[in-house]
Every structure is written in C-alpha cells, then in structure tokens.
Specification:
Blueprint (H helix, E strand, L loop, with lengths): L3 H7 L8 H4 L8 E2 L5 E4 L2 E5 L12 H14 L15 H13 L4 E5 L2 H12 L5 E5 L4 H8 L4 E5 L4 H18 L3 E6 L11 H6 L7 E5 L14 H5 L7 E5 L9 E5 L1 H10 L1 H4 L6 H16 L1 H20 L12 E6 L2 H14 L2 E2 L1 E3 L8 E6 L7 H19 L15
Parallel strand pairs: 3-12, 5-6, 5-7, 7-8, 8-9
Antiparallel strand pairs: 1-2, 2-3, 4-10, 9-10, 11-14, 13-14
Length: about 425
C-alpha cells in the first residue's frame, strides 16, 4: 500500500502541471486597487476585461454605502448559525420575495454560493429513479452536481434540439419503467462562448415529452431580457422554466445565489438542500448589499443600456476588423485565433506587458487543439475609448501571431512580482 500523497506529489492534475510557470501570472493573478476597468497587475496599470462586473455595481457609490453601513451595524458574523436553526432574518426573507417577484416565480430560496448551490439543487431534486438529460457544454457546477446523482443521465450535443428530442425519448422510457421523472438541465448564457441556450426550442418539447427544466442563468440574470430578468425573459419562456437559478457573482457583483420556482418546490429545497441546512447563513452585509444591488438593477435601466452600448461597440468592432467571435449573443465576448499553448501564452504576455490589456486566455481542452480563445467581459463602466484601445491592440497582436512571432524561442520570460 502506498502513501495517498504520493500520487498527489507526482500527478499535479490538468492545470496543476503548469503551476510552476503559470502561478501568479496566468493562474491566481493579483488584480489590485478599486474594482474598475483599469486596475493594477504586476505593478502596472492595465485595462481589465476579465471581471464579471456586468452592470458596474461592484464599485457603485450606493452599493459601497449599503455594504459599509450594514457591516458597521451588524458586523460580518450576524446572523449566527444555519438559517434552519438560528440564522434566519427578515432581510433574508425580503430578498427572497423580491428575487422571486423579479424573475416571475412564486418563491425563491437564498443560497450562500452559486457553485455549491447548483450542486446541491441537483442532488436534492432527483433520486435514483429519475433521469437527467443535459447540454454537453454545461458548467462544471452542473457536471459536479450530476456526479452525485446515482441514477441515469444522458447528454445531448450542445444546443442540438433534435438530439435532445431523441435523448428525451430514451430517458422517458427508462424513467417510466423506474417510476421516476426526467429533468433537463441547460444554461441561459454559456459563459465561455457566450451563446444562448435554446430555451424557446427546449420549451416546445414539453408538448411532446414530460420533463422539468432547470436553467442556470448566471450570465443572463441582469444582462438579458427587457428588464434584465434573464434569458427566459429574452425568449419569453420564463414560465416554462421550472427551476430558475442564478448567482450574485456576475451582474450583482457580490456573493450568494438564489433558486426560484413554484412555492412547494422551493419549500422542498429549503428543507432538503444539505449545502444550506448545514452551512452558516449568508452574513447580513451581503444580504443588505444584495438588496441594494437588486434595487439598482431594477430601477436604473441605464446600467444595462450602457453595458450593451459597450458590448455592441466591442463586438461589432471586432467583426468589422475580421476577428472570429464565434456565435456569442450575450455580453461574453470570445475572440478565437489559430495557435497552440506557446503562441497563446506569449500573445497574452505581450498584451499585458506591452499594451497594458488584461484578459483571460482559454486553451485546450476547453477549446479544440490549435485554438486560442481570448475572453473579454465588457461592463457598463467601460468606455468607448477602452473599446477602441483594445481593438487597436488586438489588430497588432493578430498580425504578430500570423507572422509567427509568438512561436519563436518558446515561452517568454515573465516578470512576476
């Protein structure tokens, strides 16, 4: 028998194997200063396109004031204990009521974290008799939630409604035989490529198959739909979404999440989600802060309007210059290039060190081999000057990439503070 730590020390994992070269620069980078388009990285100011601060609420003066006042009044400890035992307050309940009303559901349940919340929602809603059918590009939190499911699960190719139809036929037969049901899981906005889940087409299948629909709308809440109520509102199928989930980590620029559905379903989750039953209640400053953020999201439509002005300028500018931004229909803006890991990392180093632009790089296996994705996240507080500066820099680095400059001499030295 070997020491369990032996494999940990020798097998670093798919990302950990790059730790020595990447830590502090590509992984675990430190962006310092106030949360805004220009922050400090590696000792210098950079134009930042990597923060999911869609509506610019992270540093909004009313938000900062609400956060500070709540922290001063309650501290970070109150309420103590899990909500079921001693951590319930009228403000937690108020936030749930307002969230439910906004996304047009009967009730909502406040969660401590988005990732943890989705894992626990799936674990709570399905049992061994039930069958899950899910989109192949579902977020890691959905995949991890399904790993807890001891029943059957089937995948359909990304947004392939015809294949979903066939998988539903297969799943329905098994569920009927076992005395269970079928749950379809997808996303409103897919966070890497920025395309939308085809919720309107999935909803049409309800007339043919008996299933419930769970949607993770982390990137759609606050950004999609006429009022910002999400991708279901965008497609006018919000009432067809049986369980609606979103996080506060994107448009709300905070910590926490929520799930909304019919009251009896939410009541079930309140009493059966182990990640909430056995976890301390969300601290009061985060709850009061979320109430203020939701108020601004609903009452200041100019925030979303300005976000989309920046999104449209960035995406149209990239397309006009011949860049490939895939099929995005959301704020998420991927830019695809041909090249491998060395070219991609050198390209990002050049952008950060010589053009003072900070964006995230995505490589295989998230995208195909010999493909580089640079992922840009526009916000309401970016300016059109920021967009133009970025377009100019991207045009230059594309020419360098095409000329093979980033493939020369291996990985460039990085000056890491």
């Amino acid at each position: 028998m070997s020491d369990i730590f032996n494999k940990i020390r020798t097998e670093k994992g798919p990302l950990g194997r790059y730790q020595e070269q990447a830590h502090g620069y590509f992984t675990f980078p430190k962006l310092e200063g106030e949360i805004k388009p220009r922050m400090i990285f590696n000792g210098k100011e950079v134009l930042t396109w990597s923060l999911n601060n869609y509506l610019g609420l992270a540093n909004h003066p009313e938000v900062r004031k609400a956060d500070a006042e709540a922290a001063a009044e309650y501290g970070m400890a109150y309420p103590m204990g899990a909500r079921m035992m001693s951590g319930q307050t009228k403000y937690h309940e108020e936030l749930e009521r307002k969230l439910a009303k906004f996304v047009e559901k009967e009730d909502a349940f406040l969660l401590n974290f988005g990732y943890q919340g989705m894992v626990s929602i799936i674990d709570s809603l399905v049992d061994r008799r039930d069958v899950i059918v899910y989109d192949s590009e579902s977020h890691a939190c959905i995949l991890d939630g399904m790993r807890l499911h001891i029943g059957k699960r089937f995948v359909f190719p990304h947004n392939d409604i015809e294949k979903l139809d066939k998988q539903l036929e297969r799943a329905s037969k098994i569920a009927e035989r076992q005395g269970g049901g079928v749950m379809v899981i997808t996303e409103g906005v897919f966070g890497m490529a920025g395309d939308l889940g085809h919720l309107h087409e999935i909803a049409k299948l309800k007339s043919k198959h008996n299933f419930r629909l769970l949607v993770d709308d982390a990137h759609g809440f606050g950004t999609m739909g006429e009022t910002g109520a999400g991708t279901g509102e965008h497609y006018d199928v919000q009432d067809e979404i049986d369980v609606y989930f979103s996080t506060f980590a994107k448009s709300m620029a905070g910590i926490g999440a929520f799930v909304a559905a019919d009251k009896d379903i939410v009541d079930f989750l309140r009493y059966n989600m182990r990640s909430q039953t056995f976890a301390k209640s969300l601290p009061m400053p985060m709850v009061k802060g979320a109430l203020k953020r939701l108020e601004l999201l609903q009452n200041k439509p100019e925030l979303k309007a300005n976000l989309w002005k920046v999104v449209d300028a960035l995406q149209s500018g990239l397309k006009e210059r011949g860049f490939n931004i895939g099929e995005t229909e959301s704020c998420v803006t991927p830019v695809y290039f041909e090249g491998g890991l060395i070219e991609g990392t050198n390209c990002v180093i050049d952008l950060r060190e010589n053009y003072s632009i900070f964006c995230s790089i995505v490589v295989y296996p998230v995208v195909p081999k010999d493909t580089i994705m640079l992922r840009l996240i526009p916000t309401a507080v970016h300016s059109l000057d920021d967009v133009n500066e970025t377009l100019e820099a991207f045009s230059v680095i594309r020419d360098k990439l095409a000329a093979g400059e980033y493939a020369k001499g291996g990985l460039r030295n990085m000056s890491i503070a």
